[in-house]
Amino acid sequence: MDKQEQAEFLIEALPYIKKYYNKIIVIKYGGSAMTDGKLKSSVMNDVSVLSALGIKVVLVHGGGPEISEISQKMGVVPRFVNGLRYTDRETAEIARMALAGKVNKSLVDLLESAGCRAMGLCGEDGHMLACEQMSQSLGFVGRIVNVDSRIIKDVLSLGYVPVISPIGFDAEGNIYNINADTAAAAIAGAIGAESLILMTDIKGLLENKDDPDSLIKKVYVSDIPALVKQGIISGGMIPKIDCCKEAIRRGVNKVFITDGRVYHSILVEILSEEGSGTMFYS
């Protein structure tokens, strides 16, 4: 972009900057955007820009590859049940080590390097994410039963971006690995977020899964059952769409599924009319 184009972009973005000023956006960060170094840097810069514009950002991250990598180094063979990681006590400890330790702190460091004040948290901090066991067949995979949002709001009030790893707890002292989409949806509802962005490795919801040009731009939550019946929402998209629906049920105004493989997809989604993925709303 030349200087004229940059100025025009800022003018076009101004209504959206005003709209989101002092509002909260929750971003679920995962997929290729976490494993590609250039994409990772792009996402951190996007978060820094939004924060500098007065938009309150909460970053909830995954980290499945890191859990698998550390598991293998420790001689623990990763096991999956219907595509979900089986989590015994040892794997739950590894998940805590990988997510709340390695991944979380590296993201905080990257955000700080991008000029953004950031603070790392996990769902055990402040007893933020209380869980119960989702299924005996999955071990210590957590279903969130309560979100104590006070620590998140405190960190936001100090001008920091909370970077949250999806590790939960229960009253017996057990720790749980939580799906990052699920955690992001619950957190977004609990803190009164304006919008939730789920970064994925797909363009959004496609009318024809084999045609990337068949993107559905906007979906009413009330249309979801019909889309499932038609087979447009199927397979691995079903739990992701369920998270969109749950976030809106909890009071989030808009939920976006956006392609994390595209540079600056967050800025395009938030600061333009066209957007880059699929928007869900009530």
Give the topology, please.
Elements: H1 3-20, E1 24-29, H2 32-35, H3 37-52, E2 56-61, H4 64-73, E3 80-81, E4 84-85, H5 89-113, E5 118-122, E6 129-133, E7 142-147, H6 150-157, E8 161-165, E9 167-169, E10 175-177, H7 180-190, E11 195-200, E12 218-220, H8 224-229, H9 237-249, E13 254-259, H10 265-270, E14 278-281
Parallel strand pairs: 1-2, 1-11, 2-8, 5-8, 11-13, 12-14
Antiparallel strand pairs: 3-4, 6-7, 9-10, 13-14
Helix pairs in contact: 4-5, 7-9
For the CA atoms, what is the radius of gyration? 18 Å
Spatial ordering of strands, largest sheet: 5-8-2-1-11-13-14-12
According to CATH, the fold-level topology is Carbamate kinase
Strand proportion, as a percent range, falls in 15-25%
How would you portray this structure in words?
The structure is a single chain. With 282 residues, the protein is an alpha/beta fold. The protein has a single domain (3-281), classed as Acetylglutamate kinase-like (Carbamate kinase, 3-Layer(aba) Sandwich), CATH 3.40.1160.10. It has 10 helices and 14 strands. It has helices at 3-20, 32-35, 37-52, 64-73, 89-113, 150-157, 180-190, 224-229, 237-249, 265-270; strands spanning 24-29, 56-61, 80-81, 84-85, 118-122, 129-133, 142-147, 161-165, 167-169, 175-177, 195-200, 218-220, 254-259, 278-281. The protein has an 8-stranded mixed sheet with strand order 5-8-2-1-11-13-14-12, with helices on both faces. A two-stranded antiparallel ribbon has the order 3-4. β6 (129-133) and β7 (142-147) form a beta hairpin. α4 packs across α5. The longest helix is centred in the middle third of the chain and has 25 residues, at 89-113. The protein starts with a helix and ends with a strand. The mean pLDDT is 92.
